[in-house]
Amino acid sequence: MRFWTKTTATILASALTMSASAFAADPVRIGMVLPLTGPTAGYGKDGKMGAELAVEEINKAGGILGGRQIELVFDDEKGTPQEGVAAVQKLMTQGKVKAIVAGMNSSITLAQAAITKNKILHIVPGAQADAITEQGSQWLFQINNNSTTNSTIFHNYLVNSIKPKTIAYMGENTEFNKAVLQNLQKILEGSGTKLVEIANYDGTTTDFTSIITRLKAANPEMIYVVDAYPARTAQIWKQIRQQGGFPKEAHATGTVQTSAIIPAEGAMEGVITGDIFIAEGATGAMANFIKAFEAKHKVEPNKVSLVSYEAIKVVAAAMDKAKTDNNYDLLAKTIRGNAWPSPRGNLTFSEIGRSKSPYFYIHVVKGNNVALRETFEVK
Amino acid sequence: MDLFVQTVINGLILGSGYALVAVGLTIIFGTLHIVNFAHGAFFALGAYAVLTLQNFGVPYLLAIPLAAIVVAVIGYALELSIVRRALYDRGEHGSIIITFAISQAIVSAIILVIGPDPIPVKSPFGQTAMSVFSYFISAQRLFIAGTALVVLVGFGLWLRNSTKGQQILAVSQNAKGALYSGINVPLIRSLSFILGVAAAGLAGSLLAPLISAFPTMGDANVTIAFTVVILGGLGSIGGALLGALVIGLSNAFFETYVSVSWTPALGWILVILVLLLWPQGLLGKAQLNRH
Fold first, then answer.
1. Is the pLDDT of residue A3 over 80?
2. pLDDT value at position A151?
3. A245–B contact, CB cutoff 8 A
4. Mean pLDDT of A129-155
5. Rounded CA gap, B101 and B105, in Å?
6. A230 and B216 in contact by Cβ < 8 A?
């Protein structure tokens, strides 16, 4: 009898130990939805590289929650809200993921946020529209600056430093464009600068010659383009250049990457823009990030790579600190209540989930990249 | 007045580009009754073919016809392996699904092999714009307009005057009748498909310096091409040219004088109006009666 009692106890103890160690070894699955195909697939490629670097660093350092590795599960939003929503739903129902990292395009992110609201932790890496964090989702956080923060700094810079007397505005008819235009109109109130023409075009537009002709007819001193699609951005600036250009030229913040500058073949030279990231003159944690990224992927990172890297780092660090991967109330509280080290410095989040990054940079397009023109501290 | 003339120039040049994209679509529909949703993907293949040829040192002007040939060869391989087995005489519904699948496969293959980022395509016309009496005309756009005119007129004459052209028209009207008359219908069908996709490739190679090469570059262009061929009359070359010029000019005037935001709806509004008045499109009925 004693023998059997001892044997049973040994077997039970072994089984418990084994199951505990198996549990400890279970990876934490994080779902990442990116535009891997479609017109913004370049963003997907850049974002994927950033996220993979973050996971590699976390796993090499021992993982989270007592040694559990992070496993990324990717899905493709294909650049449309329908596919974006389907990808999030698939990851939530079949992917067994504990958090969703999704959102490069504001219109798609808004559709996805309606699905994740009150169901799962949702980190938005790139999308900027203010409306994303105004939907009342307690478990949603925006890594990039929202468009009002970026636009306010940029538009004030345009009005006070570039000082155009008149501006003609053209932008793709999206949620992001709407927020930027409203901000511009607000900043221009009472200033000496007038908005003389607005052209909001559809995403299916294939030629901009007539739109530029219309804007040129208004004889503005500055053209301001708001478009986040690299191929279209290049095409617009080529066509602007073909029609003789404008005395002063600007492009929306956070949207000018080398994937637009290179195909523009010099047509964007001198265009003023801005972003939360610049590789030029990076020091400290940012320099380390750039070095690690280049070592892993053999290319220079961009803003999209950075925010994707940061999104994964914030999720992982928050899960580790809160000691849970599924108590979303606690995770959200932990994210709001702490500062999160990132290559840009410490990221903090407001009550509605907006991040506050320390710096914003004014860029000017130079050659095949952007050059730093001025640095602003984000207040 | 200056703005009016510039808008007319913009519209005509834009329309000629639309015509070039639409002509291949209308050939394939007219002869094979296939709604080719892969047209945009063949358009992209034309751009990438020119890009690849340029990387091997082939000059742009020589790379254009070679790119059309490369796309024709790829099109023939797909015609042999998929299209003729799955689509001929099977109705238009199957063609939508299968050509859409071909389109997705081609786009995915481009992303896997070359990558998703837009790549500039060099042209000897560069970004130059000519200023004629103070009106701006993009040199590349003018080159496209000239090529479109030559290709469309040449193709129309070939269809009308050559034996093979007549055989294509015969198959488009009544494939069984053509077969009983001794026409090699499978060969004519292959030829029509190859010509259609080669036209898409040609359009892609010509428009690539303006819009860069990227995997989904054909999507928006092919959407407009559909409005053009429906407006002009499905299967009609003359209709494609007329429809393209109508949409090009309408878009240019609407964008310049009325509203940029509403312009995309304009093409479809025109299509609905034309179909209400002439159900075969502007030239579709006349073209069918002629043959």
1. no
2. 93
3. no
4. 91
5. 6
6. no
Q: How far apart are CA A34 and CA B156, in angstroms?
A: 45
Q: B165: pLDDT confidence band, cut at 50, 70 and 90?
A: confident
Q: Supply the CATH classification number for the domain A148-275.
A: 3.40.50.2300
Q: How close does chain A come to B136, measured CA to CA in Å?
A: 6
Whether residue A205 and residue B220 make contact (CB cut-off 8 A), yes or no, is yes
**DSSP character for A302?**
-
**CATH for B14-127+138-290?**
1.10.3470
Q: Domain residues of chain A, as ranges? A: 23-145+282-358, 148-275
| Model pLDDT for residues B80-118, shown as the tens digit of each residue | 888 877 777 666 677 788 888 999 999 989 988 998 888
Residues in A touching B11 (Cβ below 8 Å)? 210
Closest Cα in chain A, distance from residue B70 (Å): 24
Q: Which among B120, B126, B251 has the least Cβ separation from residue A210? A: B251
Q: How many CB atoms lie within 10 A of CB A39?
A: 25
Q: Is the dihedral of CA A157, A159, A163, A164 positive or negative?
A: positive
pLDDT bin (cut points 50, 70, 90) of residue A4 is: low
Token pair, residue B216, equals 């989904």
pLDDT at A226 over 80: yes
Q: What is the reported pTM?
A: 0.81
Whether domain A23-145+282-358 has CATH 1.25.40.10: no
In which residue are the tokens 């001892």 written?
Answer: A6
Q: Decide if A297 touches B, using CB distance below 8 A.
A: no
B127 vs A230: CB contact, 8 Å cut-off?
Answer: no
Residue of A nearest to B18 (CA): A206
